[in-house]
Amino acid sequence: MRNKTDSEKETGKMTKAEIVERVAEKTGFSKKESVEMFELLFDTMKSTLETGEKLKITGFGNFEVKQKADRRGRNPQTGEEITIEARKILTFKPSNMLKDSINAVNG
């Protein structure tokens, strides 16, 4: 496994390449096979959410696309009233198991 650069250590972010590398190491699959699995998994998740279905991953959490209605807002620079257009948003609610796991590590 490659060492993280100083900037990666500072940001505390894991990249797609790092996830693929870890999957390859833990499963014994090649990086190419791991990339294919990763892409297939996320393409499946994306297409599920695009159709409006909820996505539940036991032990991890729930993803759901919700519709937000038009609403009134203000331009913070000018104070002018504006209409914020209706849009879809993606929400994630972590499972209790994930929350407990995170708190056990950081607590």
What are the secondary-structure elements, in order, as H or E? HHHEEEEEH
- Rounded mean pLDDT is 90
Supply Rg: 19 Å
Identify the strand order in the major beta sheet: 1-2-5
Low-confidence blocks of residues: none
Largest sheet: 3 strands, antiparallel
Number of strands: 5
Q: Give the overall shape.
A: elongated
What structural category arises from helix and sheet content?
A: alpha+beta
The rounded distance between the terminal residues' Cα atoms is 28 Å
What is the chains' assembly state? single chain
- The helix tally amounts to 4
What share of the residues does DSSP label as strand, in percent? Answer: 25-35%
Relative helix content: 40-55%
What does this structure look like?
There is one protein chain. The chain has a domain at 1-52. The protein starts with 5 loop residues before the first helix and ends with a helix. A hairpin with a 6-residue loop joins strand 3 and strand 4. With 107 residues, it is of the alpha+beta class. The protein contains four helices and five strands. The mean pLDDT is 90.
